[in-house]
Structure prediction request, 209 residues.
Amino acid sequence: MTEISDISGRVPDLPRCTVHLYMGTGVPPVPCAVRVPDFDQTLVTCSGPRSQLYVLLGLHYCASVFARYPKSERHAAELLEMSRLIIEEGIWPDSDLLRYAGINDRVRLVEQPPPGAKLTTLQLVRRTGAGEFELLVDPARDMTGDETILSVVVLLQGLLPLLDATAVKVLDHGLRYAKSFQDEGMDYTNLEAARSMANRAFREAGGQA
Prediction:
């Protein structure tokens, strides 16, 4: 993943799209939180292209985590299974993705960042000249592999209340397209391929940003 401090050749020329992802510690289910610093979370949803930017950010984070692990590695297999379970249930505005993925006994979503939580900052930007988007990441340095794959579903669940109806549909379809690309043998085990997969899944799902 590209470090968030490395923005050379990239232009954050879209509405600000930054998310703070907090993974708690302690006795399961550990508390986790997703906070959007530039958005008033007392509102139920954002709308239009801004809403879909958060979908794209979620797809990019999912793809980037897949890129960390070889396909034969345990964490890759577990994340694939979580994705499959979510896709089987489908994503709706009131979906409980933690339950769908079978991890609600390991993590739970809370409104405020829990004390001592591990913070990962995500920022979606557009690449200069290419018109494509990529994810810049300031990762929590001590995240374990288990915490990292769990954080994918935590992020998607935390973003869901911010999405309008169209964006929820794009997220549902985008995950389905990403899985179909994986099933067809698309290489996603390097960052460039993962970035391409996320952008393509978003476009095929009808996303606009």
User: Anything to note?
Assistant: The first strand starts at residue 2 and ends at 3.
